[in-house]
Design a protein that fits this description.
single chain, 175 residues, 2 helices, 43% strand
């Protein structure tokens, strides 16, 4: 079996500002299981649970759970394209709700400008794994799936319901 480069996008992510230094975060569904995405794939819940657990243990807990602005052509994280750090991933039924801090990097500042300007962004996972057609004819991700990043920030997500919108709405300056 040959491992394939897999990407899955989600469209309903919100953003919020927290703390004294006004750190900007995106939050919402980062990964979706048991539902066919726009790429025509299904991620079985057991496969995603195992992969998310390993990602939390190896990346998130070590503060190396970076994501990029836009999808590169491969699974490797490109340091010059890092825009955010994933800080939490929590299961809610078949959806993994994530929270990521937008970083003060060139790509992070582009994402911040889009969000603060009222634009919408989505997130998309990136990983490696094999696919097998299930009995319904849908390509199913197999248990060798490995997450490279739980979320890249993208403009056109494929995952069911994975766009980022402001939460709360940015305040207009009164000056």
């Amino acid at each position: 079996k040959q491992m394939k480069f897999l990407r899955a996008l989600v469209e309903t992510v919100d953003y919020l500002t927290e703390g004294e230094n006004k750190s900007l975060y995106i939050t919402g569904p980062f990964l979706v299981s048991e539902e066919k995405n726009r790429n025509g794939r299904i991620y079985p819940k057991g496969v995603l649970e195992s992969s998310v657990s390993k990602y939390i243990e190896n990346k998130l807990n070590n503060k190396t759970s970076y994501g990029e602005l836009s999808h590169p052509q491969g699974p490797k994280i490109n340091e010059d394209r890092i825009s955010h750090l994933v800080e939490s991933l929590i299961w809610d039924k078949n959806i993994v709700i994530g929270k990521a801090k937008i970083l003060n990097t060139p790509m992070g500042n582009i994402a911040r400008g889009i969000l603060e300007g009222g634009g919408k962004l989505g997130v998309s996972s990136r990983g490696l794994g094999t696919l097998k057609q299930n009995s319904s004819g849908i390509m199913e991700v197999q248990d060798d799936y490995f997450i490279s990043t739980a979320a890249d920030i993208v403009t056109d997500p494929s995952g069911p319901g994975c766009l980022v919108t402001p939460l709360p709405q940015p305040r207009k300056s009164t000056h």
